[in-house]
# Entry
Amino acid sequence: MSETHILLVEDEAAIREMLKLSLSKSGFIIEEAESVRQAQTLIFNRLPELILLDWMLPQTSGIEFARQLRKEPQTQQIPIIMLTARGEEGDKIRGLEVGADDYITKPFSPRELLARIKAVLRRTSTTAENEQIIVNELILDPAEHRVTVLDEEVQIGPTEFRLLHFFMTHPERVYSRNQVLDQVWGGNVYIEERTVDVHIRRLRKALALHGYDHLIQTVRGVGYRFSTKMPQY
Ligand code: CA
# Structure
């Protein structure tokens, strides 16, 4: 949960190796891709917490990929830092326009990049992800990895925790099983839709002990919704 996965999309092996080495030392888990296609496969298996994206890539360019990532609901929120070559001032502006969160000009030192990564993570996902989410007496604390109701701990497994975290941060909206899979499991093709039902049942059971199972509502024929409003049947 606390491990930060970074997807590095860069076609130059030497740069990838250098960055992987230095960022791994700082505790990040680095996934490498040398093309957009490879990156897409990795993202499909697991959503990274941040993407380092080279501008100049064979076939699909970094900028085109950034644009795609911003369009897809499941990748929209992932922070992107563009790696650009010297003198591509116009490109930097275009990069930020399509939704990159920052850019860094090659050549750069690993220390400089690390500072940028930390700054972007602070600004974006990490802060939001570590904030307590409160719904009535139900409190989910991502930093402590704990769910409580009136100071009593709700006993749930890691998947139910992620599921509840997703629902609490996306309330009052219906999600299909497939969308829940994409959001919580990262769109891995090998997980069946009914897996969602299994974990929803477990989550409800755990919440029921504290009188909060009504928040996870089944929307017949569509999927699930987290709502504080009483369901209409
Ligand atoms: Ca390149």
User: Anything to note?
Assistant: The chain has two domains: 5-125, 133-226. The CA atoms of residues 54 and 83 lie 5 Å apart.
